[in-house]
Amino acid sequence: MSHSHYNRSQYAARRRSGMNRNQNSVAFVSSIKLGPVTHTVLVALMITVLGLIYLTQAIKATSYDYETEKISSQITRLEEEQVNLEVENAKLTALSEVRDSSVARAMVSPEAPSYVNN
Length: 118
Known about the structure:
The chain is rod-shaped, with a radius of gyration of 47 Å. The longest helix is centred in the middle third of the chain and has 64 residues, at 36-99. The protein is built from three helices and no strands. By secondary structure, the chain is mainly α. Helices cover 71% and strands 0% of the residues.
């Protein structure tokens, strides 16, 4: 019976001291104490590092935009060149078809011109 009484009193003592089961009884206290100036400097450094990371990402996005614009203008230039080549191809094809047509083969060379004098 005394063993049971001991456990209850030990548990009750723990409850009064603010400790619960499965809780560490050791509190770690940092040996480094930061003053307000050091704290402000650390916060400023963290903000600076975050700003540099943001700028790096923004510059990377801007360079991607520049590359995209460059490739887009190159595509536009090549499309215009393709249209010009298609027109030239159509002209050359038309000329060769006219030259090889039955109408062109039926034509004769002109005779020497004669002039009428008054």
